[in-house]
Amino acid sequence: MTLEELKTRLKIPMEDTSQDDYLQAALEDAISYVKEYCRNDFVDGLPSGVKAAVAKLVKALQEDGRVASQSIGDMSKSFFEGGTMNEVHRLLQPYRKARFV
């Protein structure tokens, strides 16, 4: 997955390079996490579902990933633990290799 693909998935204009260094580092971290979690090196490239999970991980790093909802009028936020990671793990489940003991 390239930085350009990530920016497209996150709806960041290509000409906006202000976050590129951060996004590249976050992208590498997210891909590393996904490979370890799935026990899969994805030597043929990342499938679309895995790319979606990587983009969600990067987005969660950019924001507070625990926000379940928020309202602007009278400012209200609700938080929950693990929401983003649950969604990421759901997306990655078909790509996860079983561990044999």
How would the blueprint of this fold be written?
Layout: H1 3-9, H2 20-38, H3 48-62, E1 67-71, E2 76-79, H4 83-92
Antiparallel strand pairs: 1-2
Helix pairs in contact: 2-3, 3-4
Walkthrough of the structure:
- The chain is mainly α.
- It has one domain (3-95).
- Helix content is 50%, strand content 9%.
- The chain is built from 4 helices and 2 strands, in the order αααββα.
- Strands 1-2 form a two-stranded antiparallel sheet.
- Helix 2 crosses helix 3 (48-62) and helix 3 (48-62) packs antiparallel against helix 4.
- The longest helix is centred in the N-terminal third of the chain and has 19 residues, at 20-38.
- The protein starts with a helix and ends in a 9-residue tail after the last helix.
- The mean pLDDT is 86.
Largest sheet: 2 strands, antiparallel
Helical residues, percent: 40-55%
Which range does the strand content fall in? 5-15%
Give the SSE string.
Answer: HHHEEH
Assembly category: single chain
Rg (C-alpha, Å): 15 Å
Dominant shape: globular
Helix segment tally: 4
Number of domains: 1
Parts with pLDDT < 50 across at least 5 consecutive residues: none
Give the overall pLDDT as a whole number: 86
The structural class is: mainly alpha
First-last Cα distance: 31 Å
Please report the total strand number as a whole number: 2
Sequence of strands across the biggest β-sheet: 1-2
